[in-house]
């Protein structure tokens, strides 16, 4: 991995000056929570997550409940005070009675327990800022509870552990001040050995909602307060393996590896350590020994000699492991390392366990390698969120997230924008997920101001160091990220320098490190030359040397492709955020990944983001909805900008994640000669062959499987392919029928995240077998005509149709006495705007012509072109402000079939349309829905790669996807026909002369537009049916600029469009 050249020498000078200025500027009279120089008092040094076991067997199990851990989760006494000066200041005293206080669950966020106001903003500060003075009133939550002394703690060090507290807190035990801590997402540990006593003990915690630390935690998520991660008391011997660092280092052939261990022993009393030793043993996944026992005297570790020049060798314990199983997301093989501190008699004093994965991350030139392979990151940004518990996630929540990632072929997460609970990393190690671990650092509102101020440098470094110290032993972590959206400055360079020197086994990431001011082609930020250059090149002209990758947010396809070919960019490229999945979004994923797979130097990216962050509420009528910014009276808010997930707030998969699964699938299928069944199967995995996969195929005729089978002997090496012949029999062709070949890959093993048989990859091919059907002649009784004013009624025994000479539209339609169209069949050029539309490219402003086009339709001519006993032909000609002409030709057959021919001729200089189609209403008694087209989930022109042509059946509601903020939804592309029927299977059939886009809603478009939450949607006595030729894609870049517009191939430019369909009784 390339090491930056200039930063280290600067860091020496910077470190001296920083220390000087920090000391100089510290103000004793400031309270800690308003002093950027005080972020920890009496807090223990950061260390790897581990537990002190009493013996080898318990340590091998890894079950922390086999230690003497005491959990302080559960009910605490709680007092909420809105103004800090009004809080009871002596609540921590043992004499202070809290029996009348409320009970609150820990962990939790107090706002979701009825105290204070949940607030959602993208950037926290909308007022004049003067860091470190916080501009809002500081609310305080005071907690108190008791715990019993554990007799096992005698002669041991006792540690009080808080997993995460927002934003900062003071702590007391038995009335004595223990310490103070900031950083809401890393542990705070305090040595309370001298504070606890036999019998009952009291712990008191005072949490401040807003502090100087809030300037460093200005992330785009809910601002929720309190003790949101677990609280526990740990104990360990007074001489203990308090910390350790484990590395694996492969030889050049990635055959053998050095296991390197650096234990850190601590003593809290004067203890005779003579004769004590540390032993290390590696065991494989089956519990068998995988190494010889490594030993070192404790005194040698405690008294390690550091040289005047150079540095000590990393490993204190080291051994070569021959041909170890390698860890990767595909093969997350874990060994168990047992570290034991023994006394002079060989009796275990302290035993620790650590899962170990043999994994190497390196950068060769501009390509990142994992275990020597050019791996791509199919990633997503993950926030801590639960729709009920907020940021207080359970272990079950976390495991469900990781299982879903695996099921949908994602292989990486970015812990946006803070370190996660340690259990997440355990799960990623276990299941196989690459992790970009991100420091809890974002100064969004003040941009790069604090990153360039020496008085904040120590706080920056503390957050980086503690993250690395805690998480350093996880093989899943392949990158350290310095934070998010905090500008760039020497404070970041200091973070990177420390991390790089301490741990050079992972790459350093920070998207804000853009623009290398030392480069001769550098452009001044904000200048005209900069804007012109950066908009094309995506760089200025490269990034600062303290990062190992060139990271970007939301580049367009053109910019990403340009960056991949830019001679100034000589590091791997990645998108730390892309494909902003807000609302109905995530279009053109295929196009992104076509570019990524073309270039070895593009590492991949992380979708924004994983889960919608709505909070479940009920209205006064008991109807549920998801609350967003502004719903709690928070005047400064970012509305529904928290709803960006590819899964819903309750972890229900959204249609977008199905597209991810397909785009990211590890096996791909390509047609060679479909008539002969010849297919190329490619294994896109980097480490696994296809030994544990079964390949199945089906042959379908119009959605009905007529033949199926299994492909045998499909053994494909990683990154290789095989050409196969699917042995289907050429079907006896039926006139008008379509034939489809489907191939899929399934796991032959039970996995932690899915059972045997789970479908991993798939592809559907349309076979070149088709005989054109002739139109059948109609038969029925003569058509009768009646007229009442402007309304003409055509009818016979089969049907009854009303058409208006004034509007030119079919007003209603009955078949066999049943109403099947209860609303006029009208042209439609618009849609209820998606978030990408409304917030992004704003067609409501730029394309307003088409928003108003339906109401501006002027009937220019109504003509009965032909009339006979067999059929009636009527033509309605419309003008739209003399800039577009529309002709609707209706052919009414005596068997009740209605054919609609639609012909639009619009000036090419008009703005793009959002859809070309027709809209009507169908009585909601016709609630059973079936269609033959793309599905089963919602799909659009730029998000339909995962969808398959088939016949899908259910109710109307089964085919509706409700976005938490209502908007355009539930479309299906390439629809051949749609049926809507009642319980007796009577109703209507809509069939296109060409594939249609179809959607059916239980609400009107007006209701979709008006509603801001799903509980506000008003169902009518009819379902809205959209019968479209085409609709604009949903877009997939961002949700706040013109780049949100779908790429050109998925737009609907103004021009000529023609399509036709029939409406008839369902058979």
TrEMBL record:
Query: Record keywords: Calcium included?
Result: yes
Q: Give the protein's cofactors.
A: Na(+); Ca(2+)
User: GO cellular component terms?
Assistant: beta-galactosidase complex
* EC number(s) given by UniProt: 3.2.1.23
Origin superkingdom: Bacteria
Enumerate the InterPro entries for this protein: B-gal_small/dom_5, Bact_Beta-galactosidase, Beta-gal/glucu_dom_sf, Gal_mutarotase_sf_dom, Galactose-bd-like_sf, GH, GH-type_carb-bd, Glyco_hydro_2
Look at the named UniProt entry and state the broad enzyme category this protein falls under.
hydrolase
Q: Which Gene3D superfamilies match?
A: 2.70.98.10, Galactose-binding domain-like, Glycosidases, Immunoglobulins
Record-annotated Beta galactosidase small chain/ domain positions: 793-1064
> Could you say which residues form the signal peptide?
none
Q: Return the SMART domains for the record.
A: Bgal_small_N (SM01038)
Gene Ontology biological process terms in this record: lactose catabolic process
How is this protein organized at the quaternary level? Monomer.
Give the family per the record: Belongs to the glycosyl hydrolase 2 family.
User: What name does UniProt use for this protein?
Assistant: Beta-galactosidase
């Amino acid at each position: 991995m390339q090491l930056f050249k200039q930063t280290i020498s600067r860091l020496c000078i910077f470190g001296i000056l920083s220390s000087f200025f920090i000391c100089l500027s510290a103000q004793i009279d400031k309270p800690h929570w308003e002093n950027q120089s005080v972020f920890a008092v009496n807090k223990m040094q950061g260390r790897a997550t581990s537990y002190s076991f009493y013996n080898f067997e318990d340590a091998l199990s890894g079950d922390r409940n086999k230690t003497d851990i005491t959990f302080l989760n559960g009910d605490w006494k709680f007092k909420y005070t809105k103004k800090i000066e009004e809080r009871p200041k002596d609540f921590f005293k043992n004499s202070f009675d809290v029996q009348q206080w409320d009970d609150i669950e820990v962990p939790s966020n107090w706002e979701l327990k009825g105290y204070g106001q949940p607030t959602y903003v993208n950037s926290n500060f909308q007022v004049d800022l003067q860091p470190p003075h916080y501009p809002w009133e500081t609310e305080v939550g005071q907690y108190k509870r008791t715990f019993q002394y554990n007799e096992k703690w005698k002669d041991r060090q006792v540690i009080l552990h808080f997993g995460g507290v927002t934003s900062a807190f003071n702590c007391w035990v038995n009335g004595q001040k223990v310490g103070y801590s900031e950083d809401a997402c890393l542990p705070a540990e305090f040595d309370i050995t001298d504070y606890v006593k036999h019998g009952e003990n009291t712990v008191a915690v005072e949490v401040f909602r807003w502090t100087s630390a809030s300037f460093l935690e200005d992330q785009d998520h809910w601002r929720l307060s309190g003790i949101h991660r677990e609280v526990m008391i740990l104990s360990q011997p007074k001489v203990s393996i308090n910390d350790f660092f484990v590395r694996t280092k492969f030889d050049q052939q990635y055959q053998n590896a050095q296991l390197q261990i650096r234990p850190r022993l601590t003593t809290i009393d004067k203890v005779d350590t003579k004769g004590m030793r540390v032993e290390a043993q590696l065991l494989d996944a089956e519990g068998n020994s995988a190494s010889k026992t490594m030993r070192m005297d404790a005194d040698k570790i405690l008294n390690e000699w550091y040289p005047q020049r150079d540095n000590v060798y990393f490993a204190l314990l080291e051994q070569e492991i021959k041909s170890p199983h390698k860890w990767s997301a595909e093969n997350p093989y874990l060994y168990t390392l047992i570290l034991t501190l023994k006394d002079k008699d060989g009796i275990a004093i302290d035993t620790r366990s650590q899962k170990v994965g043999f994994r190497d991350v390196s950068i060769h030139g501009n390509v990142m390698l994992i275990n020597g392979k050019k791996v791509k990151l199919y990633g997503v940004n993950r926030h801590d969120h639960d729709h009920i518990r907020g940021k207080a996630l359970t272990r079950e929540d976390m495991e469900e997230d990781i299982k879903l990632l695996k099921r949908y072929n994602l292989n990486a997460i970015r812990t946006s924008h803070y370190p996660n609970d340690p259990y997440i990393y355990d799960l990623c190690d276990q299941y196989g997920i690459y992790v970009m671990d991100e420091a809890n650092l974002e100064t969004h509102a003040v941009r790069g101001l604090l990153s360039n101020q020496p008085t904040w440098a120590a706080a920056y470094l503390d957050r980086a160091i503690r993250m690395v110290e805690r998480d350093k032993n996880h093989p899943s972590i392949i990158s350290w990220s310095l934070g998010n959206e905090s500008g760039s400055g020497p404070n970041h360079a200091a973070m990177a320098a420390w991390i790089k020197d301490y741990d050079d086994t992972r790459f350093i990431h920070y998207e804000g490190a853009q623009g290398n001011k030392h480069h001769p082609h550098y452009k001044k930020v904000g200048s005209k030359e900069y804007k012109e250059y950066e908009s094309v090149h995506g760089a200025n002209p490269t990034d600062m040397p303290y990062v190992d990758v060139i990271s970007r947010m939301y580049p367009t396809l053109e910019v990403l492709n340009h960056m991949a070919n830019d001679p100034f960019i000589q590091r791997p490229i990645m998108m730390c955020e892309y494909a902003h999945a807000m609302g109905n979004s995530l279009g053109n994923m295929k196009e992104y990944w076509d570019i990524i797979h073309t270039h070895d130097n593009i590492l991949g990216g992380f979708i924004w983001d994983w889960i919608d962050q709505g909070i479940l509420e009920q209205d006064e009528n008991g109807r549920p909805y998801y609350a967003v910014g502004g719903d709690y009276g928070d005047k400064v808010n970012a509305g529904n900008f928290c709803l960006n997930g590819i899964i819903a707030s309750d972890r229900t998969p959204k249609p977008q994640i199905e597209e991810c699964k397909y785009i990211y699938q590890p096996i791909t299928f390509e047609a060679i000669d479909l008539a002969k069944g010849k297919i190329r199967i490619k294994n896109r995995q980097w480490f696994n062959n296809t030994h544990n996969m079964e390949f199945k195929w089906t042959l379908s005729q119009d959605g009905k499987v007529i033949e199926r089978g299994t492909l045998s002997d499909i053994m494909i090496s990683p990154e290789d392919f095989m050409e196969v012949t699917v042995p289907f029999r050429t079907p006896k062709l039926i006139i008008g029928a379509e034939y489809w070949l489907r191939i899929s890959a399934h796991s032959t093993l039970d996995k932690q995240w899915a059972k045997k048989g789970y479908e991993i990859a798939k592809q559907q091919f349309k076979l070149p077998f088709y005989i054109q059907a002739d139109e059948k002649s109609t038969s029925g009784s003569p058509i009768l005509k009646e007229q009442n004013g402007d309304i003409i009624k055509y009818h016979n025994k089969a049907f009854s149709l009303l058409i208006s000479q004034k509007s030119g539209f079919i007003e209603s339609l009955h078949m066999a006495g049943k109403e099947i169209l209860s609303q006029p069949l009208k042209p439609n050029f618009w849609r209820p705007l998606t978030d990408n539309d409304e917030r992004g490219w704003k067609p409501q402003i730029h394309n307003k012509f088409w928003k108003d086009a339906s109401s501006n339709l002027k009937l220019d001519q109504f003509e009965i072109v032909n009339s006979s006993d067999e059929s009636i032909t009527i033509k309605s000609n419309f003008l739209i402000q003399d800039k577009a002409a529309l002709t609707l030709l209706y052919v009414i057959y005596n068997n009740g079939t209605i054919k609609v021919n639609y012909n639009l001729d619009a000036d090419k200089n008009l703005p793009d349309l959002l859809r070309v189609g027709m809209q009507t209403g169908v009585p909601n008694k016709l609630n059973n829905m079936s269609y033959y087209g793309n599905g089963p989930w919602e799909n659009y022109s730029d998000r339909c790669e995962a969808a398959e042509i088939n016949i899908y059946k259910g109710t109307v509601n089964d085919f509706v996807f409700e976005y938490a903020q209502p908007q355009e939804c539930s479309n299906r592309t390439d629809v051949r026909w749609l049926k809507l029927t009642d319980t007796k299977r009577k109703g209507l059939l809509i069939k296109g002369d060409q594939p249609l886009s179809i959607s059916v809603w239980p609400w009107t478009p007006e209701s979709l537009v008006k509603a801001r939450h799903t509980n506000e949607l008003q169902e009518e006595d009819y379902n809205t049916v959209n019968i479209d030729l085409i609709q604009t894609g949903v877009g997939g870049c961002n949700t706040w600029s013109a780049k949100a517009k779908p790429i050109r191939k998925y737009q609907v430019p103004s021009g000529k469009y023609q399509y036709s369909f029939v409406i008839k009784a369902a058979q």
